[in-house]
Design brief:
The chain is α/β, with parallel strands linked by helices. It has 14 helices and 13 strands. A six-stranded mixed beta sheet has the order 3-4-2-1-5-6, with helices on both faces. A three-stranded antiparallel beta sheet has the order 10-9-12.
Length: 468
């Protein structure tokens, strides 16, 4: 099947990217050494980076998910530019962190340039060879019979036919209604009814049978399964039975197959990388911030009576509650006094906001404006309650006042310190716009988006733009 062939080629491309990147780096280092550009000591330093190049290239290729299907030469070049750009940044960063002073920038730049050229040429050659030279005979195409001719079947056909260069031919569709025989169905035709399935698969070559029936017709699947078992035909069933905008996957628990419907599309590998990035960055930043944290703690303690830190129960991932840590910016009786001034709320929605909140201490105004009060949340990030980037965690009070059920989708991701709100106006935004940005982040999340938010948050915080 086209999908199986695509998966196989994808794995081969990952192996290709990894081995070719390592080979090009080794050749460049060797050429530099034998030509006298590198001394023995310098050559040793460069060889230390070889395992790193290989270790980065593999996961990077896997993450990029680049393929040859439907790719133009220009698209291939763009993918390889991105791949080698990230590889270059990672190698340079590691060389700097581990203090490899003898590393030659010229060697690294030469490696990246040659790697870009090599990977692009090899990919272009593979694309030409596979799609122009290695043309399968039509009788060897994978023959697919689709059971169904409605919207689900048409949706499937629109995704299959663009991959026809892989050697796939849809021989036709079956429909429960005999009157539809001969009707067109997105590039093919209805060639029979479900009752005709045994006769059709006996008379024709059918490699795969795809069930694309609506839920109301799933009772017919028993006869289809039995026919496929008897005829030795591979059976596939479209699993999008419910239109809930979810990611559908198949899981096994003790050999029991389970269809998994996730309300949010999440790549487990990328979530693991996100968590590792959180731990690494917090571990690197916290020691540097110790003097700042100590200074703020002293200022808070001297400014008013009460503890240095303010712990508030917030709602996190999957609605699990946790104590979010902040430097105390209000007087100790702030929670009790909220009821007295709640009628002065200047914000729309369930959140409370007041320009000159009398509950805020003089030091509190400063640390809020500079976002220094948020620094202890790095501890929450390290513990796993929060992430560096994600929707801001809501208080229990605010969550209980939600009037939009869709907003509870936010609990499918780990809350964060920085979010799209931080770089789009912060407290100046309306409550509804804030929630819209949170949903936009959840639906479009990527590691690149996290990095963009982090980089854009720094100047916003330094300027104090939109801080409350």
């Amino acid at each position: 099947m086209a999908i199986s062939k695509a998966k196989l080629l994808r794995k081969l491309l990952v192996v290709l990217d990894t081995t070719l990147s390592g080979a090009v780096y080794a050749v460049v280092c060797g050429a530099a050494y034998f030509s006298g550009v590198l001394t023995s000591d310098q050559w040793s330093d460069h060889l230390i980076l070889l395992p790193l190049v290989i270790a980065i290239a593999g996961p990077l290729s896997l993450w990029s998910k680049s393929t040859l299907v439907g790719q133009t030469v220009g698209r291939i070049l763009v993918d390889m530019l991105r791949f080698n750009g990230i590889l270059f940044a990672a190698v340079v960063a590691v060389a700097f962190v581990v203090n490899l002073d003898e590393t030659s920038r010229g060697v690294i730049v030469t490696f990246i340039a040659l790697n870009l050229l090599s990977l692009s040429l090899v990919r272009a050659f593979l694309r030409w060879w596979y799609f122009s030279v290695r043309v399968e005979k039509r009788e060897n195409y994978t023959k697919v019979l689709v059971v169904g001719s409605g919207p689900r079947a048409e949706f499937y056909l629109k995704n299959v036919m663009p991959n026809s260069e892989w050697g796939v031919e849809v021989i036709g569709c079956l429909d429960p209604d005999a009157e539809k025989i001969g009707d067109p169905c997105d590039g093919t035709t209805v060639i029979g009814t479900i009752e005709d399935i045994e006769q059709i698969v006996s008379d024709q070559v059918v490699d795969e049978l795809v069930v694309a029936l609506p839920r109301s017709r799933l009772n017919d699947i028993d006869a289809i399964v039995n026919t496929c078992k008897e005829q030795g035909i591979e059976l596939k069933v479209l699993a999008d039975f419910y239109d809930i905008g979810a990611e559908v996957s198949l899981e096994f628990q003790d050999r029991v197959p389970l269809l998994n419907f996730r309300p949010v599309v999440q790549d487990e590998n990328m979530l693991l990388v996100k968590r590792i990035v959180d731990i690494v960055l917090v571990s690197a930043v916290l020691p540097v911030l110790v003097p700042v944290l100590a200074a703020v703690a002293v200022a808070v303690k001297l400014s008013s009576k009460g503890p240095v830190f303010f712990l508030q129960e917030r709602v996190g991932l999957h609605k699990r509650r946790f104590k979010m840590i902040k430097f105390r910016s209000m007087y100790v009786d702030a929670e009790e006094r909220l009821k007295e001034i709640e009628h002065l709320n200047e914000a729309e929605g369930p959140i409370f906001k007041m320009a000159n909140d009398p509950r805020v201490t003089p030091v509190g105004h400063f640390i809020r404006r500079t976002s220094l009060d948020e620094l202890p949340q790095l501890i929450n990030v390290f513990k796993g309650d929060m992430s560096l980037v994600g929707p801001r965690p809501m208080s229990v009070r605010d969550v209980m006042l939600f009037d939009k059920g869709i907003q509870r989708k936010r609990f499918s991701v780990r809350p964060g310190i920085a979010c799209l709100r931080e770089i789009n106006g912060r407290s100046e935004l309306s409550f509804d716009r804030w929630l819209e940005l949170d949903l936009e982040y959840i639906d479009t999340w990527s590691l690149g988006l996290d990095m963009q938010i982090l980089l854009r948050t720094v100047p916003v915080v330094l300027k104090g733009s939109g801080a409350s």
